Amino acid sequence: MKKNQTAGSTRRRSRWEIIFYGVAALIALIGLAEATYLTVIFLSGETAVCGNSADCFKVLGSSYAKVGGIPVAGLGALAYFTVFTFATFAAFDYSRARKFFAWTVLTMFAVTLWLLFVQAFRLHAFCRYCLFSAALVFLLTGLVVARPSTAQSSSSV
Amino acid sequence: MRRYAPFIIVILVAAVTVGSGAFLYRAKVAANPPLKIPKAAGEKPGESAHVLGPPNAAVTLEEFGDFQCPPCGKLSEPINDLQKKFNLRVIYRQFPLPMHAHAKEAACAAEAAGRQGRFWPMHDLLYREQPVWSNSRDARTLFHAYAGMLQLDLDRFKKDMDSSEVQEQVELDQKRGALIGVRTTPTIFLNNQSVPAEQLKPENFGAAVEAAVKNAKPSS
Questions:
Q1: Which residues of chain B are within 8 Å of residue A77 when distances are taken between CB atoms?
Q2: How far apart are the CA of B219 and the nearest CA of chain A, in angstroms?
C-alpha cells in the first residue's frame, strides 16, 4: 500500500516537473526568438527603433551592446538556447540538466540586472526589447526559485 | 526512443532558429542593402556645394532635396546608380520644406558631416534611414548615432550642426532654389533643364537621364 502511495507521488511529481520544465522551455523559446531577431537587426545594420522613440537605437547602438565585437543579443540567443536545451533535457528526466538549467538562469539573471543598471544609470534610455527579455529572465528566475524539489526524485541518466 | 527525444527536439529548434535567422537576415539585407561608405572622390571638407562626379561630365544633375521628403528618398538610390552608369556630375542642394519637422535638422546634420568630408555617406544614410528618424521624437539623437556610425568626430559634429555657418549654408541653398523657382522637392535639373514631375518617379527617371545623356554634347 505504502509502496503504491510512493509510486503515485513520484508519478505526480514527475508530471509536475514535465509541465514545469515545459513552461521554462517555452519561455526560453520566446526569448530565443526575440534575441535572434535582435541579432539579425544588428548584423544587417538596420536601425532598431521602438515606436517613435530613439531609445532602442541608443541602447542597441551603444558600446554596451557589444562584447568583444559580439552583439549582446547574440550572446542572449545563445543563453536562451542553452536554457531551452537544459529545460528540455530536464523534462525528460536528465537530472544533471536541472542543475545546469538553474545555474544558467541565475547567471542570466545577474547579467540582466547589470544590463538594467546600464540602461537606467549609464545610458538613461530603456530599450523595450531589452525590457521584454528582462521580464522573461525574471520569469525563468521565478520558476527556478519555485521549482519542485528534486532531492527525492528518482535517479536518471 | 524517449531517450533520444530531447536530442531531436534541441537539434530541431537549433535548425529552425538558424534557418529562420538566416532567412530574416537575407530578407533584411535585400530590402535594405548595407551602406557603402566610400570616400567620395573630390569631396573636400566644408565644400559649399556637394558635388559627385567629374567636372566635365556630359550631364550635370542638380537636385534640390529634402531629406524628409519620401519621393526624394525613393529617388536617392536610382540617382546613385545613374551617376555611376552615366558618369554624371551630381550636385545636391538643401531645400528642407517647413512642413517636415526634422528636415532642417537633417540638412544641418548632412552639412555638419560635410565639414568632415563625409557629406555623401551621411546623405545616403539619412535617405536610407528616413522612415526611422522621420517618425522619431528624438531625431537629433539618431543623427548623432549616424555620425558615430560614419566615424565622425562627434563633438565637432554636434557643434557644427548648431553653428550659424551650417544654418546659413542651408538657407543659402534654399534661397538659391527659391530664386530659380524651386517650390517643392525633389526638384531636379538636368543640364539646367527642370525635369517634369511625372518623370521624377523612380521608374521613369532613368529614361529622362538617358535622354539627357543622348542629347548632351560633352563639355570641353
A1: 17
A2: 41
**In chain A, what residues touch B37 (CB-CB under 8 Å)?**
none
Does one domain contain both B56 and B96? yes
Which A positions 3-42 lie with beta carbon below 8 A of chain B?
29, 32-33, 36-37, 39-41
**Has this prediction a pTM greater than 0.90?**
no
pLDDT band for position A123 (cuts 50, 70, 90): confident
Say which residue the cell 556637394 belongs to.
B50
Place of cell 523657382: B181
CA distance A61 to A11: 50
- B45 in any annotated domain: no
**Calpha distance A38→A40 (Å, rounded):** 5
Residue that is written with C-alpha cell 527579455 in the block: A133
> Which range, of A26-40, B20-34, B70-84, averages the lowest pLDDT?
B20-34
Side-chain-side CA neighbours of B33 within 13 Å: the count stands at 4
* Distances in whole angstroms, Cα of residue A14 to Cα of each of A4, A88, B17, B120: 15, 14, 29, 64
Domain A8-145, classified CATH 1.20.1440.130, yes or no = yes
Q: What residue numbers bound the domain in which B109 lies? A: 50-215
Instruction: Tell me the per-residue pLDDT of B136-165, one tens digit each, with 9 for 90 and over.
Output: 888 898 899 888 888 888 899 999 999 999
Which member of A43, A57, A94 has the closest CB to residue B142? Answer: A57
DSSP H or E segment with residue B174? helix B164-179
A65 touches chain B (CB under 8 A): no
Residue of chain A nearest B5, judged by CA positions: A92
> Is B112 in CB contact (< 8 Å) with chain A?
no
Residues B23-59 have pLDDT tens digits of 998 887 776 655 554 444 445 554 557 898 888 888 8
Tell me the ipTM for this assembly: 0.82
Residues B155 and B81 in one domain: yes
In a domain, B42, yes or no: no
Within its chain, how far is the Cα of A87 from the centroid? 10
Is B180 a domain residue? Answer: yes
Shortest alpha-carbon distance between residue B28 and chain A (Å): 6
Identify all chain A residues contacting B35, using CB atoms and an 8 Å cutoff: 45
Q: Do A57 and B13 touch (CB under 8 A)?
A: no
